[in-house]
Amino acid sequence: MKRLLILAVLLGLFSCETEIMDFKTENLSNALVVYGEMSNLAGPYTVRLNYTSAYSPFDPTEFQGQPIPGAVVRIVDETGAVTALMEIKKGMYQSPASFQGQVGKKYRLEIRTADGLDIASDWQQLSMPIGLKSFTSSYKNAEKVENMHFKLQASLQDSRGSEDYYFVKRQDFMQFLTTCPAPPPPPAPVPICYNKCWQAIQNTQPILADDFYLNGREIDLALESIPYDDFTEWYVQLEVYHVDKATYQFWKRQEDQRILDGGIFDKVPAQIIGNLTCLNKPDRQVLGYFMVAGKSKERKLVDRYQGIPAESYQKLVSYIEFNKLRYQNTPLWDCRLAAWIPYNVGLSLPIY
Questions:
Q1: What average pLDDT does this structure show over 53-82?
Q2: What's the pLDDT tens digit per position in 72-87?
Q3: Are residues 176 and 309 in the same domain?
Q4: Which of the four, 99, 167, 262, 302, has the lowest number of CB atoms within 10 Å?
Q5: How many domains does the chain have?
Q6: Cis link prior to 44 (omega < 30° from 0)?
């Protein structure tokens, strides 16, 4: 009986389905990587070209791979109209600001590198943009400041009768305050003190959603809450891309591999193929994606000052003072010089 039980367990393990298609090993240490996107919103649109490696400790510009300069990059539509992109810095190409995608048209990216490689993306139709149906925040009180937060909620209204996929980018903009130095003794003039700057922490994890079980219904987006660790301004910006199935599956595979935890039922880590092909050398691997999608965006101010219970506000004031969140030990006349603040974008909130 014990032998039969062991045999049944082994058969069960071997019957677990793991889909591996077109598996091959390949040295990708010098593969090309392309990333760009275009939408119905006004440009310019940017395309980045680089190799996967070529890290050099003596060149800080190569920590993410060697850029590919001198390429001819263009966007072509289904009618044959061509829009050329200009190289604005090494490996980065940008369309004219006047160029704007049109809903319903098909587009693709075409590249010729300086060493003669012809690369093209698949044709994609620019879909109708979908806006947010709701976007709200609400304060949640707690005994300790560390547990006080603002709950964020947002949703999309899906259209009925079609298969829809959504890719959402979130970007937070947080204001921070610094301490001004003591003024110089008279008669020296007192410099202007700029002590309010903005921080825009990079977020590389998109929110993915589909209408598989929610066709024509409201789709809630999973958003992380905002801490009540200061009363400065905090904006949350959501960019909603109405993408096709292939684009959704590409980013879903990326996310699936990011969250692997080593379990026996995890998917096998594998090379993720995008929508770009080397036309004159089909065996040359091209990684990355060129995304064409209807896009909408909305920015919301989370008010961390008004409507807060007085007792909670006093706890926060003590918390700020105790943790020296005004950087009292490093006074500055200009907060733009606060190099210890990651992603310090300066005095102005970036343009919407």
A1: 76
A2: 999 999 999 999 999 9
A3: yes
A4: 262
A5: 2
A6: yes
